[in-house]
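Notes from the 1:1 (GR / supervisor)

We went over the backlog. Supervisor wanted to see one worked example end to end before approving the batch request, so GR pasted a single chain during the call. The sequence is below; no edits were made to it. Supervisor asked that the structure be written out right there so they could see what the output format looks like.
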Amino acid sequence: MAVFRYRAATTAGALSAGQLEGGSSAQVIDQLRRSGLTPIEVVETQALAQPAARVRPSAASRRAVAVAIGELAVLLGADLTLDRALGVCADNIERPAEKAAFAELHRRVKEGAPLSRAMAEAKDLFPPMASAMAEAGEANGRLDVAMARLAETLERTEALRQVVAAAMVYPVILAVIATGVILTMLLWVIPQFEGLFSDAGAKLPFMTRLVMGISHAVRRYGLVGLGVASVAGFALTRWVRGPAMRGTFDRWVLGLPQIGTLVTATELGRYTRVLGSLVDGGVPLPDALAIARRSLVNTHLSAAAGRVASGVKQGAGLTASLSAEGVFPRAALSFVRTGEETARLGLMLGRLADVLDRDVRQRIEGLIAILTPLITVIMGAIVATVIASIMTAILGFNDLALSS
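Structure output shown during the call:
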């Protein structure tokens, strides 16, 4: 079977457009006529037998998705139906993988699935917050506004990612060059002196013997060690991602110096932006909290957000519930308290999200600014140690010869 795009006229003379599945265009025309429509155009778009291309996370893919979501918001704002708007977005996407993924999204919506559920099923295409913000738009009847905010959030996230990637270019190049220099010394330079120092044995300085031992170990067991480390790293990653360890690992990450604060600010910035969009859209606060919780990736923070939602549902204040969990920074609680007291919670949550996003950017830039000189110092110290150990042995070679 294949998918056919059609245009048809209703009995009242209005135009209708969409997609249908069928073995041939004749079958689709027959379906339209039995539905009371007069076919105008039937065009095959794709075969169902071919699976949709898997979307690989990349900068180009994320930009294509953000552009498509922004276009969807514009089309919905122009009073196009969701079915028609998704069809137009899918047609306008140039990248094959994203085009196929949006076509699948369109198909799921045509089958009756809510957009939020279809987005949640397309895990390779959308981040977790996408389905939450779509559900917000569905709940308040302002899906176009929700999609516009989602597109803006995706663009901000991608811009921050690009800033980080650009800032990391120099440290990564520096680390690669330094590692290459160290390996060159261990694999080719140090072995040149083994014959010279072979008769000295235990009379060599300790640092020289240590460096030569490391060189020998790298040459003999380097590939084996690299393989073992790769397998161990893969196994550890799978173990940490398992349900039993995920919560413990997420809690441990939040307790790390600098890294924990960065992760918390990133997660809460996304959470407050979604929550602010829900509240602005008129969604009741308990329901908004339950929906916004889905935007959190860290399981420890997600569990805390769930308890906050339960507390508010039972009549507790939002500020008090957040404070009791201890996951929100004290400065952030002041935004929430102000929003509650002035009945402008949605506005204050949006401003809080902006503050948290700016804090994330500043922290990342600060970490990168520290990382570059730190790599330089560490690698320089290692190279200096290797050179010093060899030079010490060479300068003391006459003394070793005289004492033998």
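Supervisor's comment: The chain has a mean pLDDT of 80.
Batch request approved.
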